[in-house]
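Q: I'm writing up a methods section and want to include an example of the input and output format. Could you take the sequence below and give the corresponding predicted structure tokens, formatted cleanly so I can copy it straight into the document?
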Amino acid sequence: MSASQEIHTKVTPEELAHTFDEAPTEANLSTYAFEDWITLALFWLMTGCVFLQFFTRYVLNNSYAWTEEIAVNCLIGVVFLGAVMCVRTSRHIQVDVLYHYLPARVTRVMATAVDLIRIGFFLYGSWLMWRYMEIVADEEMVTVQLPRNIVFYSVLAAFVLMLLRSIQVFIANMRRGYSVLERPEAFQSVED
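A: Here is the clean output for your methods example:
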């Protein structure tokens, strides 16, 4: 085992202070869509409910029962609406090892098939969620006198948004001529 020593260059306090002189980069909020902001609001509502539950349980020794149910329902919204962002930015888990070894024509056909299967999956998921809502339309939440349809509608809206976003991704991939599966390096940004 060879031990290589690190070499540290001495820096004066003035030089160190000048490293912070650079202007901070501008925040770019244009990459976020409306569903991202709704997801962020639901996340903070869930966080507030979890904090309130913790505070009332361990500090006041008198827990509010409704905080857990609201937090769980917010988590459902965060998961499904967050999935919309993953579809829009092509960030879902994907296996692209075959795309490195097969010819470009074959990978183009495979990527198009993946896009079409994804569209079909979200179309079917939207239809299933619609059917499910017909079955459990009159249910209420357990601890709060609110209809459970609030949660079901948010999941349905997320499936419909994932369907629409997957159609947008498909159209963009067709115009561009490749997808993230074929050229993942083209989708890497400086912020990653």
